[in-house]
Amino acid sequence: xxxxxxxxxxxxxxxxxxxxxxxxxxxxxxxxxxxxxxxxxxxxxxxxxxxxxxxxxxxxxxxxxxxxxxxxxxxxxxxxxxxxxxxxxxxxxxxxxxxxxxxxxxxxxxxxxxxxxxxxxxxxxxxxxxxxxxxxxxxxxxxxxxxxxxxxxxxxxxxxxxxxxxxxxxxxxxxxxxxxxxxxxxxxxxxxxxxxxxxxxxxxxxxxxxxxxxxxxxxxxxxxxxxxxxx
Length: 231
Ligand SMILES: [Zn+2]
Known about the structure:
This protein has 231 residues and is mostly helical. It has one domain (16-230). It is 83% helix and 0% strand. Helix 1 (10-40) packs parallel to helix 7 (202-230), helix 3 (93-106) packs across helix 4 and helix 5 runs antiparallel to helix 6. It starts with 9 loop residues before the first helix and ends with a helix. Zinc ion binds next to helix 2 and helix 3. Residues 85, 88, 96, 99, 130, 134 line the site of zinc ion.
């Protein structure tokens, strides 16, 4: 914990919140759209609930898989960069010291001071200094594939659980409309929360997510309706 003057920056709050809201949004939009589509095809309630439940499980698993794969490859490239840095520090320490000096000079320090700082940083923790100041890798932000996979599967499932609950509680009549309307309300709330926490205005976030959510639900309901008519 840093001492003295301390303010929290939006960026610090953004990491996990952004992932959580994205996951929940995906869950709500995809499951509400499924319900809207299957209900518009005149399916009965068990079929609607089956489709929504299958959508929740499939979506959560694919989010987890996608997140795990992308964060693992991010971690792989971080590890490869660190290994190369370690190698260069072992085999060409002078060039690495010069590189660090130039980085600090580029940040506004005078040559002599930059050299002193680079020298002290190198003696304190050479790899840490290069990882942070050359590669931009911060300990706190190191990729955690399992954590990321779990977080996105959980937030997707929580988001998807809302339209599923509505589909279960509300009558089949007008279900496409009622589940879509209820889901858009929650999406608007999430959009406002994410925008506000990220330092943007409420309406910016609300507008973005409800527009795309409504578009997805309308498109799926139209497809479902066409299938229902054709059947
Ligand atoms: Zn380096």
